[in-house]
Design brief:
Blueprint lengths: L3 H17 L2 H13 L3 H13 L4 H21 L5 H25 L7 E6 L7 H13 L2 E4 L6 H11 L3 E5 L6 H13 L7 E5 L5 H7 L2 E2 L3 H11 L5
Parallel strand pairs: 1-2, 1-3, 3-4, 4-5
Amino acid sequence: MLPYRIKAKYKKLRDREKKELNLDEIKKKLMESLGDLNEEEAQKYFNLLLEEKVPPLEIINTALKPGMDIVGSRYETGEYFLSDLMLAGHIMKGFMNILTPMLKSDASGPKLGTVVIGTVRGDMHDIGKNLFGTLLIGAGFDVLDLGTDVAPEKFLDKVKEVNAVALGMSTLLSTHLFEMKNTVDLFKREGYYDKVMIIIGGRPVTEEFAKEIGATYGKDALTGVKLVKRHLGFEE
């Protein structure tokens, strides 16, 4: 526990920063610090936004998602490595653990249906999947998250079990795109392909690939949520 003098000094610094920065500037600082993988700074600006009672979806869409986009871009150019992605995921998970209960509370009205999500077999990455699931909850869906390394059969069984309105699959690895095709093909063979929307996303996924295997392309988590709502007739 911090001594009283240190806590008081921190509070003064924090209050001064709140006065010097407007909300847009605080969001930008959070985005930049997340993009730079500066956990301490990111936590500071995240806390400032919570103290100002900024809605959780606004924090996600205007600061956290753009920050993760910076991380993704730096990974693609070789500036960041897999270990950096894992650190970014760790930071995001901490923020989402706080925001997800708030989103569930905000979305306490009638549910739009259940969406099953997961990362495909052989892939242990979950940053994009977790963000997609959080935004779905905020939009009013029940979400059943199967986690990572999910086999096609498990996707199908769970979709049937909960009568899901949509299935969302993610991968970060181009070497595992075939698992998305395997899952879609299984749904077709089992006669369940026309009963559920299948949406796929992740850094190696393209619109062309999605069309090729018969799935909907989710360019990013926010777009994915909009596409699911539109498919079900809840959004133009």
